[in-house]
Amino acid sequence: MTRKWQTFTPNQSAVLWLMRDNGTAIFRDGFRRMNWSRNADGSVLIDGPGLIRQALLERALIVCSGDGYVLTDAGAQAAAAILTPPAQVERAHLPLTPFWLSDAQMVAISGWFPKSHGKARLDDRQILSGIVFVFRQNLMWGQAPAEYGGELALRRRFTQWCQSGVMDNALGHLFEQDGDGQSRLVVTTAMLMRHRSGAHAIARGYLPTFTPIDEMEAA
């Protein structure tokens, strides 16, 4: 008979594996999907639904310790019984370094950005790189690294640029090279459609370059 603590959801298994390898975990609740990254101090930062942390607490597998959580003896035993890395560990891993658009990419789309008058805006490269990162990693806006300017700045600029047409022109002309040296869009229709804000923008007609039926491909 399988003992209760040996039965886990994919997210719970991933958290136990990560805490076994990294020790302390810092949880940020309130996100629809789980993502994780390592902090500079060696702890692991885990974003996701609060139910993940709550379930492990209720089963006495983790316990609060300082600003984070650590495995209990039962949690360490459960983690040791997971013999191979859960698939969710790889799927939910955020890159160690944020994504930044290159000078050449910014030059290619610079003509579509409005000129700044009066108070200077946050850097266009900073904000647009953050927006691209959110869609490529399928993150909630609050999960974007702080280097991009913060959740409010990203959400507000995305909305403004959608309404003005800047976003469609920018994303529709941002290309990169794939492993075979072929050009492809930095953000695809599939990436936009899996994200709530991207799918909403397409449904509202703000991104006519991107349609769920006929995705634009690089020439």
Automatic annotation (TrEMBL):
Residues 101-169 form the Insertion element IS402-like domain. It comes from the Bacteria. Pfam families: DUF4096. InterPro entries: IS402-like_dom (IPR025161), Transposase_6_like (IPR052909). PANTHER family: BLL5188 PROTEIN (PTHR46637:SF1), TIS1421-TRANSPOSASE PROTEIN A (PTHR46637). This is Transposase. It comes from Komagataeibacter oboediens.
